[in-house]
UniProtKB/TrEMBL annotation:
A Pfam match: DegT_DnrJ_EryC1
Active site location: 188 (proton acceptor)
Keywords recorded for this protein, A-Z: Aminotransferase, Pyridoxal phosphate, Transferase
N6-(pyridoxal phosphate)lysine found at: 188
CDD domains: AHBA_syn
The protein's name in its UniProt record: DegT/DnrJ/EryC1/StrS family aminotransferase
Organism, scientific name: Saccharopolyspora hirsuta
InterPro entries in the record: DegT/StrS_aminotransferase (IPR000653), PyrdxlP-dep_Trfase (IPR015424), PyrdxlP-dep_Trfase_major (IPR015421), PyrdxlP-dep_Trfase_small (IPR015422)
Record-level GO BP terms: polysaccharide biosynthetic process
One function term, GO molecular function aspect: pyridoxal phosphate binding
Family as reported in the entry's similarity comment: Belongs to the DegT/DnrJ/EryC1 family.
PANTHER family: 3-OXO-GLUCOSE-6-PHOSPHATE:GLUTAMATE AMINOTRANSFERASE, TRANSAMINASE
Amino acid sequence: MAVVRVPFAGVAGENESLLADFLSPLSAQLRSGQFIGGGEVAAFEGRIAELHDVAHAVAVNSGTDALRLVLRALGIEAGATGITVANTFVATAGAMISEGLRPLLVDVADDENIDVEALDRAITADTRVVIAVHLRGLPARIGAIRDLCARRGVLLVEDCAQAILASSDGVPVGGFGIAGCFSLHPLKNLGACGDAGVVVTDDDELARELRLLRNHGLQDRDTVVRWGENSRLDSLQACLLNIKLSHLEEWTKRRRDLAQIYDEGLSGLPITTPVVGGNAVHVYHRYVIRTDQRAELQAHLRNSGIETAIHYPVPIHRQPAAGDGSVEVAAGGLPVTEKQAAEILSLPLHPALDERQIHLVVQEMNAFFGN
């Protein structure tokens, strides 16, 4: 096996670089005895709300719970239809199913995000909510989706799991629908040292419901006003996230700079590189290319010491769990989704990489294609 020269992920290096910053705040937090809620969580929520120019941020214990609890707080009746895409992580559809909704999967456009025209055709009288995914860190056509949902009387929730700091027409993602749901999994652009998530919203009542739901429905220590669950963000995770949040803008710029090297170095090759509209700011959680020679290219890069991955090789409607009929596919099928799933390849891109490593990937890809 070749020596790894370009690692796909940089979580360990990211945390190691911040150890000196972590130790004093973590020590203070440990000495305080405050491990649930408290000042670090409140500070994190305040900073996230300000970052997204919204009234509220509600921290929870995962991006999946962010989606689940939003759907529950909105009071959508069991059996109603929710629309999303099949090329996202399974949690998007899984959250709907766990809350009693029936996911209807529609096709995507060339940018891998939801096809707005396909969405329009799929909305019926049974549709209650659309979950628009900003895949890879690239905003969907979210302004058009917002307008469509408003016209058709359908709720819009944004799955921003991979897209913190992304924006469309100058507006941060998460601010177009009634709520934006973010994952803070360790591999995300802003990652905790464990599971974590956060919801942003301008809706006062929704924020109030979310704060109840994440804490067993407790109005106070002894009064349960609705049935909830335990989905609180730990104080220690909030402490770490507050430190990392101070670096997020710098890390995001680094991702965009490295992506530009890929864009320039891979131009002219018989592949598809990320499609970015003029009004969108892509934050490159993943840099994904498409090629009909994926297996061969991936093997060549692996033999050259370059790690890659596929996000995601099996669309949701092709997963074994979907065999029970719990998800539906829109009329006409998902031909674009299925074609892309057979061609996508995620190249290494994270702030811990240097320009030399990105140029090595470019060099090996040009060599593979004989350029």
